[in-house]
Amino acid sequence: MSLDRPSELQAGDARAPRQQPATLRDVAEAAGVHATTASRALNPKAQQLVNAETVRRVRRAAEELGYQPNPIARSLKTSKSSTVGLVIPDLTNPLFPPIVRGIENVLESAGYSALIVNTDNDPQRERALIESLRSRQVEGLIIATALLDHPLLQQLQQQDVKIVLINRRIENLRMPFVVGDDATGIGLAVKHLAALGHTRIAHLAGPQTTSTGVVRSRAFRHAVRDNGLEEDPALIVECAHWSEEDGAGAMRELLDRGTRATAVVAGNDLIALGCYDVFADRDISCPEDVSVVGFNDMPFLDKLRPPLTTVGVPHHELGAEAARMLLDSIDEPERYPRSLLLPVSLILRDSTAAPPA
Amino acid sequence: MSLDRPSELQAGDARAPRQQPATLRDVAEAAGVHATTASRALNPKAQQLVNAETVRRVRRAAEELGYQPNPIARSLKTSKSSTVGLVIPDLTNPLFPPIVRGIENVLESAGYSALIVNTDNDPQRERALIESLRSRQVEGLIIATALLDHPLLQQLQQQDVKIVLINRRIENLRMPFVVGDDATGIGLAVKHLAALGHTRIAHLAGPQTTSTGVVRSRAFRHAVRDNGLEEDPALIVECAHWSEEDGAGAMRELLDRGTRATAVVAGNDLIALGCYDVFADRDISCPEDVSVVGFNDMPFLDKLRPPLTTVGVPHHELGAEAARMLLDSIDEPERYPRSLLLPVSLILRDSTAAPPA
DNA sequence: TTGTACGCGTTATCAT
DNA sequence: ATGATAACGCGTACAA
Q1: Is the C-beta atom of A77 closer than 7 angstroms to strand C?
Q2: A175 min Cα distance to partner chain B (Å)
Q3: Which of A47, A271, A343, B290 is most buried, taking the most CB atoms under 10 A from its CB?
Q4: Do A76 and B71 touch (CB under 8 A)?
Q5: Torsion angle of C-alpha atoms A216, A218, A220, A222, degrees rounded to 10
Q6: Contact, A50 CB vs strand D, < 7 Å
């Protein structure tokens, strides 16, 4: 049989580059098959249903036309968007970029991408943003804004929205999460300070509306007891937010209470930064007068004066694992929800030393 | 079977709670009109074509059913994805989060969202990622990775891809950009140092493959001349990357050349951070021995020792303006490409002082 | 002012 | 092994 494919014609075609991107039909036509067949030939999962020779013809045509499947049409048909939503408080908090990159790494290799939204810790905003994410047909949600009491999340779970919590968890809901081992981290910090000779150690706790806040302060109280240190309630101050400003406020409160603490375990690095601010104001020197330990090991802490001792959390891995879990739960919806506790480590710098004599 | 559904809540209308999200047809049916009419009633632009009373009925039905238009179907029809691509080198570089938030702010209020990709400055990766973005039908691209010689961008422009450059520009291509006023910023820095009494001022230049690198070092040379300072080529060292590591390398080079500079204008904050590292190693004190000025005012610079004097760039605004420009050029494709130069300001902290006597 | 009919590009389902 | 047909949910000429 003689296929008429005069080479001149091809040259002519090439001269007139398609403005419109090639569609599946174009490919099918070029390969002399029906669109359905072309679809199968191009789809690895259905490829086996079609003649090997045909597959080659189709693929070749696709190649030549620079065919790119239209993911929107595909989504409409399959109601899968290859997209997941990522809900964080604020991208400019240095804690999150490494998490995001970890997530995107994993997503990318699975052909997924992430839609990121920032809630600024505003529940109204969070609700609206999640709604918009859902209307964009995200296949699942990775959420970093979980509160201990979070009706919205509960509601989403009832609607069978696939969710993985990151960095924070919810205790009573059975919802998969990926977090750092906060309790161990705080234990390490307290033990380190105790070994240095501190006996009056304070804790600037994070908001008790979050699991991280609660877990860390509970771990703090246990560690104090385990190390035989002074258990003075006045040594614990709660911050309303995980912010430098609130950290400073709590530090001032601590000082004004006259607790004579010689060391402070901050709920996180931002809170520790707040301590630094107060030290500067009040002419307190760290670590000579007061030692400080942070939590998270966010970037550039080694450039502070003094470089901040802190608990290192593998944020990139946290993100990667959360993404993997979400993809798994999309693939196998019935799978029992797992959760992960990633190991942390104490990072010694110069903000901790023996207490003043 | 017992679905746990709060009976009071839905008592009124929805006897059969939809599992499937409501579609336009559902709304139309509920309102007793045809889908077309419902579509028009819901679409602000076509709303005027329909009876006010009907509009109310439709809207009410939509409200009650919790109708959310399916953006995928809409995209397929209109071939608009309401999505733009954002191409940055690395989200963990603190420079970018504020830019991203600025972009998302504007996008959000226009019903758009951003797909973010990190190139890690790898051209291969960049090409692949942009391709994947395009296959996701993004309506435009905001690009922060532009190099002076960037064939890919040129190629995209020829394909009529809508692009706005941010933070960096390309001089010969006519492509809209939004950048800070680098030249003025450097001028401010040099003038400040000159006023302090410095005469031998060094410049640790950023990569000359980027417009920012080139513009800043050109501005530096001009400023040195304008202020009547010493024009010694040995006082300028180029960094291969905008990184702390390269900054440290360049600082060492400068020291080893024996240039006896009393101040350095770093290409950006990261490079300035590299200087701090070298100072620590070599027992040089800043600002007593050497003054340093950074560029960008990334977060937490005020916590360094010493707090870094730098040039503040309005990153959030940069992002917002770039997003606006992109949306504009999507709306009005024929509009002449604008570009924006946003004002910067010198932020005085403690890393600059008079030269040693 | 409202309704009809069709198509966006793809895939699922059935038939051949 | 391949083809025909319908449908995903929406928007829009065109008709009424």
Answers
A1: yes
A2: 19
A3: A271
A4: no
A5: -140
A6: yes
Residue of A nearest to B82 (CA): A136
Query: Does B134 reach chain A within 8 Å, measured CB to CB?
Result: yes
How far apart (Å, rounded) are the C-alpha atoms in residues B30 and B129?
Answer: 44
- Nearest by CB to residue A135, choosing from B4, B71, B92, is B71
- Contact in structure between B71 and B24 (CB atoms under 8 Å): no
Domains and CATH numbers, chain B: 24-69 (1.10.260), 78-180+315-342 (3.40.50.2300), 182-313 (3.40.50.2300)
Q: What is the pLDDT along chain A (357 residues), one digit of tens a residue?
A: 333 333 222 333 333 344 578 899 999 999 999 999 999 999 888 888 899 999 999 999 999 998 989 989 999 998 888 999 999 999 999 999 999 999 999 999 898 999 999 999 999 999 999 988 988 889 999 999 999 999 999 999 988 899 999 999 998 888 999 999 999 999 999 999 999 999 999 999 999 999 999 999 999 999 999 999 999 999 999 999 999 999 999 999 999 999 999 999 999 999 999 999 999 999 999 999 999 999 999 998 988 989 999 999 999 999 999 999 999 999 887 777 889 999 999 999 999 999 998
* Nearest residue in B to A275, CA atom: B303
A110 at B interface, C-beta within 8 A: no
Rounded to whole angstroms, the Cα distance separating A300 from A94 reads 10
Give the residue among B338, B330, B335 at the shortest CA–CA distance from B82. B330
Q: Specify whether the CB–CB gap between A173 and A235 falls below 8 A.
A: no
CB contact under 8 A, B72 and A69: no
Residue B122: other Cβ atoms inside 10 A: 13
Return chain B residues 32..61 having CB < 7 Å to nucleic acid strand D. Answer: 35-36, 39-40, 42-43, 46
For residue A243, the distance in angstroms to the closest alpha carbon of chain B comes to 13
CA dihedral A24, A28, A31, A32 (to 10 degrees): -170
Cα–Cα dist A224/A190, whole Å: 7
